[in-house]
Amino acid sequence: MAWVYYLLLFVVMITGLLLNIVGLPGLWLIVAAYAGYAALTHWVYVGLPSLITLIVLALIAEIVEFVAGAAGSKAAGATRRGMIGAVVGGFLGAIFLSVIPIWVVSQIVGACLGAFLGAMIMQMTNKDFVESFRVGAGAAKGRFLGILSKLCFGIVMILVAAIAAIPIGGKTRATTTTNVPPTAMIPAASTVPTTQTGSLDATSLAPYVVGAWRSIDGAVDTYRSDGTVVNDKSPSEKRNWRIENSAVEIGSFNKAGTFIREGDARPIERDSRGNIVSIGGSTRLSTTLPSTQTGS
């Protein structure tokens, strides 16, 4: 599922990059998509430093675009009305020329042409044609430099996000062992807890969970003594397991070492003698493991 989220993240980021051309806050869409991906994957693959990096890059890009656009118009002698015309014209031009099926190029040309016409038309109310033309040209130049700089920042942001968010190895980053089932061999019969109706603690139950368990739909989960579990339907995907309140929880550890449960807990069911007979409806494949009752 993490790969599906990753692909969606990439699509949204490319969309955000294109939105920059028409003057919309596409870089902030990239930041929002990255934060959403982090939340959906429980921060297993994404860290706070990379998110802060994207926010800083987006802020710098906004400043650079504003300075470039304002400098182009100001250097040509634009009034406030001319500068407003450049902004509005650039936005409308990028949208209207989007009908030309040459992506990116048509939007850039439309934005620059729109900025030129908007600044020139608004400037003509106070200046002559030559002066207005010069203001329009300066606005177009500033708009082009602003778009180009913002595209460069957007590409860098996408590269940072694509590398930092790739869903590989995230589940092995946790190093804490406080919630991981103990690594232990299955104890001899003499050390097995006596039969009781009360619940057993996680340390007592853990050795008897280790092994292969088949669910109703035929899938097999293999619980390992190192705290990982593998499903035969997706053997390359390793998750973690632990016992809480006499139930097995499947999930992973985030970078802070906190266990994040995926799905519902799987209740451990025992028979009248205390033997574990089912984990969330799954039955053990092997019957050679010791029972949870002494003297049986």
Order of helices and strands: HHHHHHHEEEEEEEEE
Shape: rod-shaped
**Poorly predicted regions:** 171-200, 290-296
Q: Please report the total strand number as a whole number.
A: 9
Return the structural class. alpha+beta
Question: Can you put this structure into words, describing what you see?
Answer:
The chain is an alpha+beta fold and 296 residues long. Helix 2 runs parallel beside helix 6 and helix 4 runs antiparallel to helix 5. It has 2 domains: 167 residues, no CATH class; 112 residues, no CATH class. Strands 1, 2, 3, 4, 5, 6, 7, 8 and 9 form a 9-stranded antiparallel sheet that branches. 48% of the residues lie in helices and 15% in strands. The C terminus is likely disordered. It contains 7 helices and 9 strands; from the N terminus they run H-H-H-H-H-H-H-E-E-E-E-E-E-E-E-E. It starts with a helix and ends in a 12-residue tail after the last strand. A hairpin with a 4-residue loop joins strand 2 and strand 3. The longest helix is centred in the middle third of the chain and has 36 residues.
Secondary-structure map:
Blueprint: H1 2-19, H2 26-40, H3 48-75, H4 80-96, H5 105-123, H6 129-164, H7 202-209, E1 211-214, E2 220-223, E3 228-231, E4 234-243, E5 247-253, E6 259-261, E7 266-270, E8 276-279, E9 283-284
Antiparallel strand pairs: 1-2, 1-9, 2-3, 3-4, 4-5, 5-6, 5-7, 7-8
Helix pairs in contact: 1-2, 1-6, 2-3, 2-6, 3-6, 4-5, 4-6, 5-6
